[in-house]
Amino acid sequence: MNMRYGLTAAACALWMTLSGCTGIEPVPENLMRPPRLTPEQIAIEDALNEAVLSKPILRYPKSGEYRSAYIFQDIDHDGKEETLVFYATENDPSARLCLLDQREDGTWYSPCELAGAGQEVGFVAFAQMTHTPNVTIVIGWENPDDLQMTLGLYTYDNGQFRSVLGFDQKNPGFEQYLLDDLDRDGLDDLLLLSSRNDRGRLHLVTERNGEAVFADSQDLSDSILEFPGVTSGRIFLDDLQRGIFIDELVSGDVLVTEVFSMENDKLVPVIYQDMESPLSDPEDGSEPKALPSLYDQAARANITLDPDMTAAPICEDVNKDGVIEIPTAELMPGYEEQEEAERIYLTEYHQIDGDFLRRVFAAAINREGGYRLEFPEEWIGKVTVVRQIENGEWSFREYHEEAKEPLEDLSGELARIRVVSQKDYQDKFLESYVKIAERGVFTYYGYVPKDVDSPLKVTIQQLTKELFALI
User: Fold this and answer.
1) Count of alpha carbons within 13 Å of 239, Cβ hemisphere only?
2) What is the model's pLDDT at position 16?
3) Are residues 66 and 157 in the same domain?
4) Of the chain's two ends, which shows fewer C-beta atoms within 10 Å, N or C?
5) Which of 44, 180, 48, 182 shows the shortest CA–CA distance to 125?
6) Any residues with CB less than 8 A from the CB of 166 and at least 6 apart, and which?
7) Within this chain, do residues 381 and 456 fall inside the same structural domain, yes or no?
């Protein structure tokens, strides 16, 4: 759940400076204090120094929406923003959270602070997890040698922090999280994901009697290496039920997807590793045969070869209908014998339809170029991509299997997409191209050959206005 928040001008300037938005990553230990830009910032810093006995060393959240050691948020709904500051000291490396609030006369002071459950701050988020009016502060605490985070949930009321996490249960470690109102009761639910055991694990944290408790957990796939994507949304087009879609990179460089919904404070598996396979219904009276389960149908190759990039493709609402689609990756025609580094895939997005995945969208995705081209239904299986090495251009052509070199066949071209940097030489051939979009230093051009004689042809308007999209 994305919480609405506002920033005063001074707070915004401070946040932008500390969050690294300029592209220069600050070294936290070297940034001993925020820049002295305004009197308000000076007052905030002075209040922190007054509250901390020794010199504070700021701690910066490593991920999430909030990356500053100073976070401005109205956490008690009094109409004024409080300041949350994460810090450690030279004598104690453990992270602490200090709250700075304003008195009626506008001066800043620290009414309270709390000790964190680690030396680092993995992330900070804000939610509404209890029926009290105050915001729930969600923190993932980390330690340098630990690959997992520890959960902290707090509210601020009457000048004090209060933990809303029930302590009668074990607080499991986790690597990823997601906040959403899965059961549509007006309160956020928190999902925690871990991959550090023989099997991954999904934990549900939800409200009971004014506290947030670990209400349920479910096993995930074997041998999970990482979670490239975690998102939530509707599962079916004709149902408002929401689910959590978990993309998992498992051993063998394979991506799988598991889906869970929530009902009566319990996690309900929708797609999971151990689900039963459906049986065929042969019309000839023969014995039914086991068909691939939804879990097996959703298994696909990781088409991101760069180890520094997130594995792909992952689930998303690709057609903006409110339902999360599950992708698969199919080799383009003609690439079956190519080396993995040379392969190009068609990414197909599906919605759950009974025991099967029903395709609703397909596209060739150029991740290096930052765009995708939707494939019309009649193109699928009949059109392939030929990459022009010299200029990075993608040419979309009819696939002629009978050709001596199918990917070198220059006939049957339907369209081209070229990405040009401002630094590149602007050759005369771009005169016959149409500019589609600009982003940063890159300009995107499209081209459709004249006099195409094919039932698969598209117009330049279709190419540039309907099929092309930046990613």
Assistant:
1) 12
2) 38
3) yes
4) C
5) 180
6) 208, 211, 212, 213, 214
7) yes
Tokens standing for residue 254: 């394979």
Same domain, 298 and 386: no
Q: Which helix (H) or strand (E) holds 150?
A: strand 150-157
* Site of tokens 């070229």: 418
In a domain, 347, yes or no: no
Q: What is the mean pLDDT of the chain?
A: 89
The H-or-E segment that residue 208 falls in is strand 199-208
When divided into structural domains, the chain yields a total of 2
Same domain, 73 and 142: yes
Q: How far is CA 150 from the centre of its chain?
A: 20
HSE-CB at 205 with a 13 A cutoff on CA atoms is 29
Strand-pairing partners, residue 216, are 204
Range of the domain at 421: 371-470
Does residue 330 lie in a domain region? no
Averaged pLDDT, 298-325: 93
Encoded tokens for 100 = 């700075």
Place of tokens 């997005």: 349
d(CA 231, CA 310): 15
Q: What is the pLDDT of residues 272-291, one digit of tens each?
A: 999 999 999 888 888 999 99
Task: Give, in order, the Cα–Cα distances in Å from 17 to each of 36, 37, 190, 282, 374.
Answer: 11, 10, 30, 66, 39
DSSP element (H, E) containing 47: helix 39-51
Q: pLDDT at position 4, please?
A: 31
* Confidence bin at 309 (pLDDT 50/70/90): confident
**Chain centroid offset of residue 24 CA:** 23
The contacts found for 377-381 with CB under 8 angstroms, 24 or more apart, are 378/455, 378/456, 379/456, 380/346, 380/348, 381/333
Each residue of 18-50: pLDDT tens digit? 333 333 344 444 444 544 457 888 899 999 999
Question: Phi and psi at residue 40, in whole multiples of 5°?
Answer: -65, -40
Q: Is residue 336 part of a domain?
A: no
Cα separation, 280 vs 273, in Å, equals 20
| Strand ranges in 251-344 using DSSP code E only, listed in sequence order | 254-263, 266-271, 300-301, 326-331
pLDDT of residue 377: 97
Q: Is pLDDT at 149 greater than 90 in this prediction?
A: yes
Residues 6+ apart with CB under 8 A from 275: 269, 293, 294, 295
The backbone torsions φ and ψ at residue 164, rounded to the nearest 5 degrees and listed phi first, read -105, 10
**Residue-wise pLDDT tens digits, 96-118:** 999 999 999 999 999 999 999 99
Domain boundary (325, 354, 388) is at: 325
Cα separation, 143 vs 130, whole angstroms: 28
